[in-house]
Amino acid sequence: MENSHPPARALPVIIQGGMGVAVSNWKLARAVAAGGHLGVVSGTALAAVLVRRLQDGDPGGDIRRALAHCPLQAAAQAIAARYFLAGGRSPGQPYRLAPMYSVAPPDDLVALTIVANFVEVWLAKEGHAGVVGLNLLEKIQLPTLASLYGAMLADVNYVLMGAGIPRAIPGILDQLARGQKVELRIAVAGETPGVEHRIGFDPAHFTGTPVPALRRPQFLAIVSSSALATTLARKASGKIDGLVIEGATAGGHNAPPRGAPQFNALGEPIYSPRDSADLGVIRALGLPFWLAGSYAHPTQLRAALALGATGVQIGTAFAFCEESGLRPESKREVLRQSASGTVELRTDPRASPTGMPFKVVDLSGTVSVPAVYEHRARVCDLGFLRQPYENPDGSVGYRCPAEPVGDFVRKGGDPADAVGRKCLCNGLMAAIGLGQSLVAGVAEPAIVTAGEDVRVLRRFLADGEQSYGAADVLRFMLTGLVPAC
Question: Can you give the pTM of this predicted structure?
């Protein structure tokens, strides 16, 4: 594949976080990358995002333009033929769904995942020479191999992964770059001792032979503790190129506090200094590292650099800028509340089906409102956060604490684990304007996540303005610093 950027390049000072389901979309990543820093697309649920964008008519033709450049042309054309609706869906018409993943996914779903990740990264890289990354969650394992390969076909520069211990990923990147078959062990609840469940991927099955040699992207592990950073640096299957050290004030999923759980009056988990990573240990690893969690201020950036960091990762400030994928109405309301000091943010220990604490903005009409949450009928039709479990006969089933409670319990789930769980798959799709149309034309309610910096977003607004762009965030952050790399 043609070398689209120089082999040696200064490391980025600012990493734009890979947030939500297409909150960190290609438009945001492209704006940040064109500004000289690391723009990142979220790889979560991109197959579902792609088919819904096509069913909404692909305004502007961006998706179809990227499909025309995909190396898997037969698959790209088949996807367009199956899902594209000229002019978009009729009002209230439900989206057509793609299949849900299993440990033995059908070829058309794997191809859809490859193509979707190619499209997002290709669009993010279009028209500039900057660097683009793909963010994946270790807890969403089943689409990972196809997602990585699709992004690599688009010459992604970085892969970032957190929400787990991604020890296998560096070596998998090495193998994919050489066009080799790869496997990933899948975490399966109740797995028989001595039995391992794996999902495999063979590039040649989708590209034909000879398999193209691809650039191996740099791998950045997102961690919350120095112990985890040390484990990855020493025991990963390949090279760890850097670390993002994420604190508890960062948005989205947070690592749970260490020790016995304690909660404040609002029911939020209480974090203590022992939950902060030991930067002395991090520095001793000799790897570049970036600090994340309430670092969206020039003084915080300078403090991070003084501590030996290469730079910082910023999420929330970019999540509410003009280029992000969040619905404009949500952005306007959050910015209004932030400016007036009335925005409410809660770290909900029960919201995420993963069991990890999850930060949620309290917004009218979203599932953060108890009445909206209680009124919503539970459904599991996207399935990205389903948990594989082993049946008595050795086969693998799938369950989610946010699915209908009866279904969850029938599959062996504990009913207590379903209490308060929210369907992040559907809620996050709704947050970007791709929510499913339900019965009687009712729209799927959204869930909006952010970090603690949601309280200070007014710092990015120029006088008299009610919105800001990614370039405004970069300009603000680099105040008093050397020019962007």
Answer: 0.93
